[in-house]
Design goal:
- The chain has helices at residues 16-28, 49-57, 82-92, 103-115, 130-139, 153-203, 208-218, 221-229, 241-252, 319-325, and strands at residues 5-9, 32-34, 62-67, 96-102, 147-150, 255-256, 267-275, 281-289, 312-318.
- By secondary structure, the protein is an alpha/beta fold.
- α1 links the parallel β1 and β2.
């Protein structure tokens, strides 16, 4: 089972114990913690070490940023510290972030805000005034920037427990609302379809059957099924196999599979290869029930009540799995 990955970002030597405690808490709570000191970040020989950290954030779901009294290593790729740029990277990617500031640093930061124009002021909680500039930057972010102060690792664990539980509850509520929204949209579409059908039938009584087919085709359930299967953002429409092949090839880079290579003679297939962020190759396979098209390749009208989920399926498998199954394309 996939576990959410949490990237722990902070200076190392002064916060080493806290990093270990938070990692232990996350592991016990069912999360994977990503820390560079335990080899969880894959380093590339062609990139700077910090660039590998920024890249690994792409594969994580949450970033926990802990700000203590040390500025840490300055970035060699942009302004600020490495920790600062890890947070920037997570924020730019829209990741969920939680930011914790040492209580004494947080308290003195308020004093710094009223005296930042004085360059000779000596601060007791930080070794570099740039720590306060880092906190200034975080506090000015337009969203997702609450600053939690802490004294011990238990403080961080307790806050994370409450925050993560709140996120899970929100997720469940959004899933319920999503289902309700889908039902509403389906009902709305059905009402519109029935209205159009009644109007057209009243105007063209001699062409009743053709009109029914045209209306059903515009709201054919195959369009929503393919959109959901491949996670397509835009509306899909085609009236026959030639248009489907053209859309699949030009819009999504899917290639049709020759009939003799179909897994099942009842399902047409389209495939494409791609790679994930780590360079691992995958085969994407879209299958559509052949009976949905007539002998001339035209899409047959079908109601939502008669539709079955197995008419459209999608598989994403690694290249290695495909070679083991000996699929010839």
């Amino acid at each position: 089972m996939a576990r959410p990955q949490v990237f722990i970002s902070s200076t190392y030597y002064d916060l080493k114990t806290i990093r270990e405690d938070i990692s232990r808490y996350l592991r016990d709570s069912g999360y994977d913690s990503i820390r560079h000191e335990i080899g969880a970040v894959p380093y590339s020989r062609n990139e700077k070490l910090e660039s590998s950290c920024y890249k690994e954030i792409e594969n994580c779901d949450i970033l926990v940023c802990i700000i203590g009294g040390r500025f840490g290593a300055a970035s060699s790729t942009s302004s600020g510290s490495v920790t600062q740029n890890e947070l920037r990277s997570a924020y730019e990617q829209g990741k969920q972030v939680f930011i914790f500031v040492d209580k004494s640093v947080h308290a003195e930061w308020h004093f710094y805000q009223h005296n930042k124009q004085l360059k000779d002021v000596k601060y007791t909680s930080v070794n570099d005034r740039r720590v306060f500039e880092f906190i200034d930057e975080v506090s000015q972010l337009p969203t997702g920037n609450p600053l939690f102060s802490f004294e011990t690792s238990n403080d961080i664990s307790n806050i994370l427990r409450e925050q993560l539980a709140g996120l899970f509850k929100r997720f469940l509520q959004e899933q319920t609302m999503l289902q309700q929204r889908r039902l509403f949209e389906e009902l709305k579409a059905s009402i519109t379809t029935v209205g159009e059908l009644a109007k057209l039938l009243s105007e063209k009584t001699t062409q009743g059957q053709d009109v029914i087919s045209q209306v059903l085709l515009t709201d054919h359930p195959i369009f929503a099924a393919i959109k959901k299967a491949i996670n397509n953002k835009y509306r899909i429409f085609f009236s026959d196999l030639s248009e489907l092949n053209e859309w699949a090839s030009n819009a999504k880079s899917f290639k049709p599979v020759e009939q003799e290579h179909w897994d099942d003679p009842e399902y047409r297939e389209w495939f494409k290869r791609d790679r994930d962020t780590r360079g691992k190759e995958f085969i994407n396979l879209l299958k559509v029930k052949d009976d949905l098209f007539d002998e001339d390749g035209r899409l047959k009208p079908i109601s939502k009540a008669a539709w079955k989920d197995e008419y459209v399926t999608f598989q994403r498998r690694s290249e290695q799995e495909e070679e083991e199954d000996d699929i010839p394309f």
